[in-house]
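Hey, can you fold this one?
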Amino acid sequence: MKIIAILFFCALTLPIRGYAFTYDAGSSQFPSKNEEAGEVRPIDPKTGKPKLPTRLQVYKKNVDEKFSFGMANFLTGWTEIISEPLEHTSKESGKKNRSLAFMSGFGAGLLNGSLDTIGGAVTILTSPVPRLKIPLPENGVDLEKMTGSTL
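Sure. Predicted structure:
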């Protein structure tokens, strides 16, 4: 059992040892000005160009994003049980159609809520490996849609 735990830990730490530290330094993924935060990157005195993030900084950012996404889905996945029936009934008209839509929405919500919650837990556990993507129904819980703002 200890050997399995050691192998699992080694597999999770592969990105830390340099495996996943690849990014295109010339891409527009890392602009010199962070628009959301209003920050400007420090200028390298030797080249006069903005400093690019290190591979470790990029890795940490990706791990943080994946962990946050997993937490959001793990903690709010159950809300699909409520939101799916409401979405289904708002599209239908007529009493008979609305009751059928509610039942199909409840089933879809139960399935999506369960999968979002379980997928969120798996995403949290695999956050040290940011390249590993866990597929979720409807791309997981949309917090912007639920709260009306970005976190």
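The first strand starts at residue 33 and ends at 34. Let me know if you want another pass with a different chain boundary.
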